[in-house]
Amino acid sequence: MTIHLSLMLWAPAAFALLGALFSGGGRTITRAIAGVGTLIALGYAIALVVDYKSGGGQQYVTDRMWIRELGIHYKLGVDGLNLFLILLTSVLFTATTLWSLQDDRAREGTYWLHLGLGHTFVLGALMAQDLALFVAFFDLMLIPFFFLSLGWGDGPRAERAAAVTKLVIYTLVGSLLMLTAAIALAVLSASQSGNDLSFAFSDLQQVTLTKGSQEWIFLCFAAAFLVKMPSFPFHGWMPDGYRSLPLPVLAVFSGVLSKVAAYGFLRIVVPLLPDAAVHFQTLMLLIALASVLYGSVMAFTTTNARIILGYSSLAQLGFIVLGVFSLTEQGAQGAILQSVNHGLVVAPAFFLVGAAAKRAGGSEDIRDMGGIAFRAPILTVLFLIVAMANLAIPGSSNFVGEFLILLGVFNAKLAIACIAFTGVALAAVYTLRLFIRAMHNRVGQRVDSRDLSLGDALVLVPLVACILGLALYPQLALKKGERTVKGSVAAARQITHPPKAAAAARVPAGGQTVPLDPTTGQPVDPSATGGTTP
């Protein structure tokens, strides 16, 4: 089966542009055309998962020389690292599209154009198998969300402008550092190997830079990725940014964009800079641990439901970084699985916050919600499933992801793992606080108790079904990604756990005992040592 990745990649942007051009024909035409591009991408993503061969590496590769003088390829591919992140992206953008259909807004064509561009740029960052192409998509994917926040966000325009300006400043600094690191990585690799300049991951993997070069390049990439996730203490843009984004857009922003940064660690940093990854392992684990604890504690300090979810995401992303920098196979697999889990959980959580806010007179303050559990049973059950998944109860896919992460960290750094376990308990407290205050307790003064509408159900029910499906069979993601994920940490793993030389031993051979060579493990000819055996 042939999967044309370029068609999947550019369909959302192309159809959104077409819809914007025909926006004069009415809102319905614009929405229908833009929706076609989203559905094409979703169909292709499902086909990728079904057709992908678990034992293989890069599949469905498109490789064309783009800028020959600079060694930049237009190279796309799918493997176990990005397979389910591509599916997650298409699922969440489809859900956001369905949710956005429920509201009328000014400049409809422009809104759908930015949403389609965001979809394409995120897919491009995940599919790119060339470092320069990855950097381009990684930077471009923020631009549509900047305009979505500025033009259709929540709150006064001046506050939105200040929030997105802070977001751009933070990410721009990180992006400049990443661009510098990407150029240095390609140039130093070409110089060391004597080959032509190339940014293709497959070429960069053939060269191992000196430890000193790896270390400063590592820090530049790490800064860019930690800002985009965000992680503590690079999260300063997050509270204001989350307040300003439209809630449907925030769902996909939180569910997908942060995962591209986590994916970047496993795609670029750990395999290409293994010595630096080992050198800075403890530092990265401490940053991740601080994110888990800080995000969990801060989730108790606010009553704004979307900010609670924001700090919850900060904590969950801390777990993902813990898994990556455990530099173990279990931790890396848990990080990829948890990236998918978090996206599937946080997106419907934002949708549920929006539904609860509508029933509380538009307020997202949990003190104004409550008291609708028995008046809206379907909404409450869906909220409960999402909440239980978020706190990783046994039987959920989140439990499997966190278990693998903590197992990997336990094998790498026991003390950090023991402290990280407290994040699991804290997640239960802030998640249950959000659920109980939103659904139970006294009825808020302005609460309108009503159950799901058909439009709400079209968004929420499929997402909750995905959560339940992955809970029943998490092996689907683990099996298809196992080989590639293990390969991404193999070089760093060899540094932290070098192959042990075979210990000298005696084996029977013709009634005599023969020593084993401590290097090769093969029997040693006694004549080579004067005919004696030890």
Structure description:
There is one protein chain. This protein has 534 residues and is mostly helical. It has a domain at 280-497. Helix content is 68%, strand content 4%. It is built from 21 helices and four strands. The chain has helices spanning 5-21, 27-51, 83-100, 108-127, 131-140, 142-152, 157-193, 201-204, 211-228, 238-244, 247-272, 274-279, 281-298, 305-325, 329-358, 377-390, 397-412, 414-439, 454-472, 475-488, 490-496, and strands at 59-67, 72-78, 506-509, 512-515. It has a two-stranded antiparallel ribbon. Strands 3-4 form a two-stranded antiparallel sheet. A hairpin with a 4-residue loop joins strand 1 (59-67) and strand 2. Mean pLDDT is 84; it is low at 501-522 and 526-534.
Elements, N to C (H/E)? HHEEHHHHHHHHHHHHHHHHHHHEE
Biggest β-sheet description: 2 strands, antiparallel
Estimate the helix proportion, in percent: 55-70%
What average pLDDT do the residues reach? 84
Could you give the count of β-strands? 4
Distance between the termini: 61 Å
